[in-house]
DNA sequence: AAAACTCGCAACCGCTAGCTC
DNA sequence: TGAGCTAGCGGTTGCGAGTTT
């Protein structure tokens, strides 16, 4: 069986017992980097041997992909990246590698860790299952708008002119999860761009609000965010995940509701979504998220 | 000051799809 | 066709660092 002594292909029992585990040393890292620089990736088991590493091929591959590869990004995820993760996870679930493909420089492991340590922590805090409809709804109504706000803050501070070029009519702070005609993930829409299929009525539109229920400042038009940023791979634009059919939200049982206010989550304990309590910082603490 | 606890992340494990022979 | 092997994925674990008691 894989994962046992037999998983290593040509590795016999004695070799297996001599294999090193645990944290990589600087020397091992250098060996691996040097070898891959000269010979390239692939054939990980033989690579491990040829490089003189007492590691499994699997371990070498992981170390390279998650840590040593030159274009690997380190450090905190940006709000843009977090937003994208939330969005893509709502569509694909725990398909970490697939999600990672859309965040250049980030690894599936990193994204998985982010989800488990940050997002699931919020779910625990709210005492709900992070895979539940309620939690997805919470993400959409509170977390994502705040991330968008954060994105706006960072983009306006780094490029004031870019942020101010959004001339779209945003008389309502409507956030639609997807725009069918534009390949965006999340956009502040003008009313004319809302389709019957994807629109949310104004009484129930997802709004960015602070804990007191105030409507937050208008949010930027998202196509700029995704269209211009380095992490948005233009090659992805024709991917079905962007050319969406609102399917990303169908899975959450929301899109078929023209009026979100009609959603009934049958909450018997605390109706924290509709009451607005959830938006209170005591329940939805964003401070630790970035 | 130190023990207990929590958190974040690197690394490992088990499984499986796909390829080769 | 099926056995063996490789690469890759998602889940889990272990450990060091930081925080709380």
Automatic annotation (TrEMBL):
CDD domains: SANT
A Pfam cross-reference name: Myb_DNA-binding
Gene Ontology CC terms, in alphabetical order: nucleus
Alphabetized InterPro entries for the sequence: EOBI/EOBII-like_plant, Homeodomain-like_sf, Myb_dom, SANT/Myb
PROSITE patterns (UniProt xref): HTH_MYB, MYB_LIKE
Domain HTH myb-type: 19-68, 69-123
Name of the protein: R2R3 MYB transciption factor 3
Classification of source organism: Eukaryota, Viridiplantae, Streptophyta, Embryophyta, Tracheophyta
